[in-house]
Amino acid sequence: xxxxxxxxxxxxxxxxxxxxxxxxxxxxxxxxxxxxxxxxxxxxxxxxxxxxxxxxxxxxxxxxxxxxxxxxxxxxxxxxxxxxxxxxxxxxxxxxxxxxxxxxxxxxxxxxxxxxxxx
Length: 119
Fold this sequence. Notes:
The protein is α+β, with helices and mostly antiparallel strands. Helix content is 41%, strand content 15%.
């Protein structure tokens, strides 16, 4: 089953959930503010993903700006970035969907079609 990390009021998360429901794809909803992914699971997701570390961050979020992460993230290694994200789920780009070695960050319908459709 897919682990689906999102924030309940996030409109992008709602669109992704609607798409998953329409495709009858099973997922476990995890409120990333209450239960952010562990550092270990984030490192694994980063390794399994073809995305740069920066894309795991919610770069338009208030916390990202408050912590001045724009200047810090480019110099971060995977372990450090995963540690920062694991401490504050609101820093994570949402939704984060993970099952096995498949990972999507954010919601783009064409990417969901490619990655999750035939699961």
